[in-house]
């Protein structure tokens, strides 16, 4: 801005402000009469505004013309002079008004230009600050661990809570390869466990007058008498029974003999029955009649009439709750296990799909294997993520830490399929299961 411009601005400002004030005071129709008269008294010494002068001159001219029109002859020299004087004043006022108007216009455009500059400046500062904020947020997000971000921003669902603890894999392919090899090892172990005859096991049941230690000592003395180097593994079961697992043929034969002699409270453990899952079973069919129906309708099975009523015993229903067909998990007479798997099985108007059922029952309160939640003895439910009791997974205080398995202590969820404890439990069950003779010839 040049100095000349500033000077002109300073000169025009007082004039313009006076003009503006006069405009407002003159044009405002709401001002009370008393105030207006007061303001005229105050402004007596001040220079008269062009508007007032114009109005005064106009009213004077009108009055004069009206008065002179009644006189004869009209318009004497004095009156004409006075009128011309007023007309001159009028012209002066008009030129003053024009000047004031021009000055106002100038000020208006100047302040508009100034405002535009300010708005542009404000927008520039705003966008600069926005960019700085975005950069700050980006660096903050980068510096915080991914797990924490997930934990705070994502809703507290089961998947999100458990995802937090999972390690971010450095190499997805390496991780997948490890999973695959684990899965293959598990499948191999389970396959080995189900092949061959069921594992021999014996049970020592303590009585009121003979506790488990007394039974154990008695058994040990009897065994030592007949075999100087027995190979045995024993476990004390949950129900207080002692489970004896002979590891070689001599010991097995000896234990069988002891069992038959009915000493030491020892009995041979009966092998477990294998299980099959029957899908597409008519929902209307009574599960008690399933065994008979299968025997009658599937003659290739060659079911002995003695076995017909119970060679298939439904254990529990599974699958969808509604629909035409249902799924049943049944324990099977080992004699018919292989045939049921190999042959097409028809029940009523449907062909059933028969598959192996080796799944381990897992309790959803304590996450241990071998019992459903209905038979759980624990009072407080355990957390599936950290294995501690007293809170649900959604409120887990260790959500940001890796998970801990309730069964093997490994860093995976207690429901992980590849858990080593699960595989061991399942393999143990399969070893104790009698799958009958394998099919004699491929069908
Ligand atoms: Zn339980
Ligand atoms: Zn927890
Ligand atoms: Zn585990």
TrEMBL record:
<dbReference type="InterPro" id="IPR001878">
    <property type="entry name" value="Znf_CCHC"/>
</dbReference>
<dbReference type="GO" id="GO:0008270">
    <property type="term" value="F:zinc ion binding"/>
</dbReference>
<feature type="compositionally biased region" description="Basic residues">
    <location>
        <begin position="164"/>
        <end position="188"/>
    </location>
</feature>
<dbReference type="InterPro" id="IPR036875">
    <property type="entry name" value="Znf_CCHC_sf"/>
</dbReference>
<dbReference type="GO" id="GO:0003676">
    <property type="term" value="F:nucleic acid binding"/>
</dbReference>
<keyword id="KW-0863">Zinc-finger</keyword>
<feature type="region of interest" description="Disordered">
    <location>
        <begin position="1"/>
        <end position="48"/>
    </location>
</feature>
<protein>
    <submittedName>
        <fullName>Zinc finger, CCHC-type</fullName>
    </submittedName>
</protein>
<feature type="region of interest" description="Disordered">
    <location>
        <begin position="162"/>
        <end position="200"/>
    </location>
</feature>
<keyword id="KW-0479">Metal-binding</keyword>
<keyword id="KW-0862">Zinc</keyword>
<feature type="domain" description="CCHC-type">
    <location>
        <begin position="383"/>
        <end position="398"/>
    </location>
</feature>
